[in-house]
């Protein structure tokens, strides 16, 4: 637990209160207001938590002004270039880069948990074929707690470890099954000799009628997409997982809650919404019309894939994703991709427009990811499930950090109540 570096003074009415100030490794200092209500009988008010640190964490750090993202201190650009997703999973879970032996052991443990209980296949068949894969993922991941009773005791470190491995191992299988079910094709079992990302691609695109050989370029691009989405400090879905976990709910139920929150178009659903927006724009000559709508206060339309609560500079993931988009499309021989042309022109125009400049709205992680995923052959409905399977390690790492904190307690915010004051019931005859 951090200790105060100095004391701030809060004066309210005619009283002054000491508010301890704590200093992080990086980022803004924090005012520790844990005792404020008991001392001053007041709440703080911060809907949307724009100025609130909800926890201490050692996992991920974002500097929104610099456009910096660190996983356990390592810049995302270096990891995207030199690492791979399972190594990043190890780093996020255990705090250090693994030795070769540690990495091999971790990969073996994950690989041996990639299959799901055979009876879980039945869950999918209860959904309509046209159910959004995020709907099936929320349902099936939540149902994991009905199967894996031997790893749901959150107070048992071994159970926490096993459920972390199971979640990381099985979520690509579940995402692929959600996709296969939505297109009426049979489920494809994982193949343990494949890499994590190659296994996922094969489970999505292989069919019993013919062999499927994973394209190494797509394997690398998929792995990079997973790394870029792996964790992102206390975003909405991670905060959901932490809050769910603070009640002692089992890890599978907590991750299902995170998947539900990620689905929203303001969050992980933006990658699907962004590609659909780029398609609706269609050609670069229609861009001004959409820019005008995004600036119109009376129009709820927003440029999907733009803006961010924290980044007031380029999202470093968007930069890497943009490079990947160029690489994947060129290597796949997709040169006249109208969607990419619209995306690049939209980015250029938006970055010059005073509205976006003043509000510091830059492309975020969701702006280019859909272009790559579409080029790989995924429908837009699979974009957010891929975000979810990539973020699963971040959710589980943050959940483990929260649940292992001996000082942890259930999250229970208060409110600024502006409803009716106490009043007596009146019988209907008197109303
Ligand atoms: C993700 O938190 C994370 O870390 C999330 C994430 C992760 O890895 O977990 O990074 C993943 O969710 C990325 C964000 C994906 N969402 C989108 O691309 C949807 C479009 N973006 C917006 O909805 C918005 O930018 C948010 C939700 C991302 C951030 O919203 P904020 O921080 O609450 O900011 P805001 O909505 O208050 O906007 C500030 C101003 C507003 O104008 P004013 O009311 O001040 O006049 O900027 C405007 C907004 O109208 N604005 C936009 C805009 N985003 C913000 N105007 C047009 N287009 C946009 N995209």
TrEMBL record:
Transmembrane segments: none annotated. InterPro entries: Citrate_synth-like_lrg_a-sub, Citrate_synth-like_sm_a-sub, Citrate_synthase, Citrate_synthase_AS, Citrate_synthase_bac-typ, Citrate_synthase_sf, Citrate_synthase_typ-I. The active site is at 308, 366. Keywords: Acyltransferase, Transferase, Tricarboxylic acid cycle. Pathway: Carbohydrate metabolism; tricarboxylic acid cycle; isocitrate from oxaloacetate: step 1/2. One of its GO terms (molecular function) is citrate synthase activity. GO terms for biological process: tricarboxylic acid cycle. One of its GO terms (cellular component) is cytoplasm. Belongs to the citrate synthase family. This is Citrate synthase. It comes from Falsigemmobacter faecalis. The lineage of its organism: Bacteria, Pseudomonadati, Pseudomonadota, Alphaproteobacteria, Rhodobacterales.
């Amino acid at each position: 637990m951090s200790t105060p570096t100095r004391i701030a003074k809060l004066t309210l009415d005619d009283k002054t209160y000491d508010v301890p100030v704590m200093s992080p490794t990086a980022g803004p200092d924090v005012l520790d207001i844990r005792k404020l209500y008991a001392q001053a009988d007041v709440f703080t008010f911060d809907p949307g938590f724009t100025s609130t640190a909800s926890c201490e964490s050692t996992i991920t750090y974002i500097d929104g002004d610099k456009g910096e993202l660190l996983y356990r201190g390592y810049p995302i650009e270096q990891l995207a270039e030199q690492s791979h997703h399972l190594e990043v999973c190890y780093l996020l879970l255990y705090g250090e880069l693994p030795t070769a032996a540690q990495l091999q052991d971790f990969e073996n443990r994950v690989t041996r948990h990639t299959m799901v209980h055979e009876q879980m296949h039945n869950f999918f068949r209860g959904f309509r074929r046209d159910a959004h894969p995020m709907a099936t993922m929320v349902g099936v991941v939540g149902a994991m707690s009905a199967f894996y009773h031997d790893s749901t005791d959150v107070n048992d470190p071994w159970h926490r470890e096993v459920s972390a491995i199971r979640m990381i191992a099985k979520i690509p299988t579940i995402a692929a099954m959600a996709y296969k079910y939505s297109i009426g094709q049979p489920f494809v079992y994982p193949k343990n000799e494949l890499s994590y990302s190659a296994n996922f691609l094969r489970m999505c695109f292989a069919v019993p009628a013919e062999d499927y050989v994973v394209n190494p370029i797509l394997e690398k691009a998929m792995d990079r997409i997973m790394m870029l989405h792996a964790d992102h400090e206390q975003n909405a879905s991670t905060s959901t997982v932490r809050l769910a976990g603070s009640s002692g709910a089992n890890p599978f139920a907590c991750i299902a809650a995170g998947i539900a929150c990620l689905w929203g178009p303001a969050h992980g659903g933006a990658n699907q919404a962004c590609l659909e927006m780029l398609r609706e724009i269609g050609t670069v000559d229609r861009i001004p019309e959409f820019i005008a709508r995004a600036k119109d206060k009376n129009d709820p339309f927003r440029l999907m894939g733009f803006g961010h609560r924290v980044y007031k500079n380029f999202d470093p993931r968007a930069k890497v994703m943009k490079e990947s988009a160029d690489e994947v499309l060129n290597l796949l021989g997709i040169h006249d991709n109208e969607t990419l042309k619209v995306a690049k022109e939209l980015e250029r125009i938006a970055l010059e427009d005073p509205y976006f400049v003043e509000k510091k709205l830059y492309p975020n992680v969701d702006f280019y990811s859909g272009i790559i995923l579409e080029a790989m052959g995924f429908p837009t409905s699979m974009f957010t499930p891929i975000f979810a399977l990539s973020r699963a390690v971040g959710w589980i790492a943050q959940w483990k950090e929260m649940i292992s904190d001996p000082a942890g307690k259930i999250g229970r915010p208060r409110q600024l109540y502006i409803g009716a004051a106490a009043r007596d019931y009146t019988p209907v005859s008197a109303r």
